[in-house]
């Protein structure tokens, strides 16, 4: 056992290996030296190697207010990760009542630490920043498209009902007699035309959400105009029956 005066450093280099035990005891007093012992919020012992490696130990307060650090190198040598050599022991004190934290190097140690087998980190836990091999995606080849004749034939089949409707209209004749002569009639047909135009634009470039947004406005407008037209037709028939 040896003691060190306040803020001085022990003159000899202490030797220790994994068969030894290191006891460090100290107490913290007020600056004026009066009153009971202080218990700072932070009290550490730091072993700093000449290479810069650091090992910290927390000091435990004992009965009476003194602090003790008990380092059993037989068990604690793993904390030093097998790094032997010269260490400087520092006492570090910090507290809200202390304006400047204290860092006091009070002794030098030469520690002989057994080599620690390096743990192999699982590959799943490693963080690697090296570039990875480029991933080249192979997309499925598009299926062979049908001949143009087949596509044109199905287009004509889809348009056949509309062509049949136009032919029948020309044979039967158009009857505009019951159509009310008002602005609502024109607006209703403009709304219908806008709906068909919207479907065509949707087929060319719009997506479903954009189409639904425009459809909500056009459909509401067409509904109101159609309601006015039907009301006008009903009133016209009512006057004829009277």
From TrEMBL:
Q: Key word Signal present in the record?
A: yes
Predominant location category: endoplasmic reticulum
User: Can you tell me where the transmembrane regions are?
Assistant: 153-174, 186-206, 212-230
Report membrane topology: Multi-pass membrane protein
What pathway does the UniProt record associate with this protein?
Protein modification; protein glycosylation
Keywords per UniProt: Endoplasmic reticulum, Membrane, Signal, Transmembrane, Transmembrane helix
Any one Gene Ontology biological process term? protein N-linked glycosylation
Q: Name one GO cellular component term.
A: oligosaccharyltransferase complex
Tell me the InterPro entries matching this sequence. Answer: Ribophorin_II_3rd, Ribophorin_II_C, Swp1
* All residue ranges annotated as the Ribophorin II third domain in the record: 4-111
Give its localization.
Endoplasmic reticulum membrane
Q: Give the Ribophorin II C-terminal domain ranges.
A: 139-237
- Family the entry assigns: Belongs to the SWP1 family.
- Protein task: Subunit of the oligosaccharyl transferase (OST) complex that catalyzes the initial transfer of a defined glycan (Glc(3)Man(9)GlcNAc(2) in eukaryotes) from the lipid carrier dolichol-pyrophosphate to an asparagine residue within an Asn-X-Ser/Thr consensus motif in nascent polypeptide chains, the first step in protein N-glycosylation. N-glycosylation occurs cotranslationally and the complex associates with the Sec61 complex at the channel-forming translocon complex that mediates protein translocation across the endoplasmic reticulum (ER). All subunits are required for a maximal enzyme activity.
Which PANTHER family does this UniProt record tie to the protein? DOLICHYL-DIPHOSPHOOLIGOSACCHARIDE--PROTEIN GLYCOSYLTRANSFERASE SUBUNIT 2 (PTHR12640:SF0), RIBOPHORIN II (PTHR12640)
Name of protein: Dolichyl-diphosphooligosaccharide--protein glycosyltransferase subunit 2
* Species of the source: Ancylostoma caninum
């Amino acid at each position: 056992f040896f003691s060190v005066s306040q803020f001085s450093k022990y003159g000899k280099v202490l030797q220790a290996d994994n068969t030894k035990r290191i006891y460090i005891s100290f107490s913290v007093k007020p600056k004026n030296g009066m009153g009971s012992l202080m218990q700072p919020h932070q009290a550490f012992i730091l072993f700093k190697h000449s290479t810069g490696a650091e090992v910290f130990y927390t000091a435990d307060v004992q009965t009476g207010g003194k602090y003790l650090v008990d380092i059993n190198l037989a068990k604690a040598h793993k904390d030093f990760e097998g790094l032997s050599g010269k260490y400087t022991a520092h006492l570090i004190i910090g507290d809200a009542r202390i304006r400047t934290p204290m860092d006091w190097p009070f002794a030098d140690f030469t520690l002989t630490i057994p080599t620690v087998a390096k743990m192999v980190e699982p590959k799943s836990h490693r963080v690697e920043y090296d570039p990875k091999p480029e991933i080249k995606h192979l997309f499925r080849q598009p299926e062979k498209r049908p001949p143009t004749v087949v596509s044109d034939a199905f287009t004509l089949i889809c348009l056949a009902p509309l062509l049949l409707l136009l032919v029948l209209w020309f044979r039967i004749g158009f009857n505009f007699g019951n159509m009310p002569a008002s602005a609502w009639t024109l607006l209703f047909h403009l709304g219908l035309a806008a709906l068909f135009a919207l479907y065509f634009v949707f087929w060319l470039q719009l997506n479903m959400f954009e189409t639904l947004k425009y459809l909500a406005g056009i459909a509401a407008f067409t509904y109101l105009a159609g309601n006015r037209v039907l009301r006008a037709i009903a009133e016209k028939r009512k006057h004829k029956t009277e």
